[in-house]
């Protein structure tokens, strides 16, 4: 092969590599732009002034709109809201018709409040490395609290998170005892999360493994094994009322399996 031919091949390779690299950067950058954070960063505030200021605003809207309290003082609605990178909010449709029916007054109250919050300029988008991102915000609406509003109120003053029956150490032991066979069989090394919801009865629903694992057998066995931990949870409570709550258990896989 002549040196001229070698040079031509090298140039052709460099062009193809440059095209591949630029395509990768384009795809990667657009994937980031389209990304929605499932949880708002814990070290950031999504409303200027914090939750206290937000619920103070919610109380004022309830007065301005002449909203009425619910007959059932225990009604609660947990709303999912998309806070866009532009600082706008959009209600995420809820398909849990049973929960809506059970808490219809609180649900209607929420929609009216969100309408009043739509043009509020105090919403602050999530940021990663200084760049704004769309993110999911979850808010409790307890009408009885709003109509009996106290300064510096947030619903988390009345919130008890879900917990494992037997305590945290028992939870860790049961997770290791139940999952270690899978880790050994698949020889997996790395970190991931077991995400799921504990419902009002302490049952596990909607399990998800993140990041996404492209191995159907592994995912199936993980979910089947997670079922062994069903009904071993105390449900979360809001002002004494059992409610659904999300949990995320971080795991690190290694030969010996030790939880992070």
How would you describe this protein?
This protein is an alpha+beta fold. It folds into two domains: about 50-160, no CATH class; about 165-255, TolA/TonB C-terminal domain (2-Layer Sandwich). It has seven helices and 13 strands. It has helices at about 5-35, 50-65, 95-100, 105-115, 145, 170-185, 215-225, and strands spanning about 35, 75-85, 90, 125-130, 130-140, 160, 165, 190-200, 205-210, 235, 235-240, 240-245, 245-255. Strands 1, 2, 3, 4 and 5 form a five-stranded mixed beta sheet that branches. Strands 6-11-12 form a three-stranded antiparallel beta sheet, with no helix packed on it. Strands 9-8-13 form a three-stranded antiparallel beta sheet, covered by helices on one side. Helix 6 (about 170-185) runs antiparallel to helix 7 (about 215-225). Residues about 1-35 have low confidence and may be disordered.
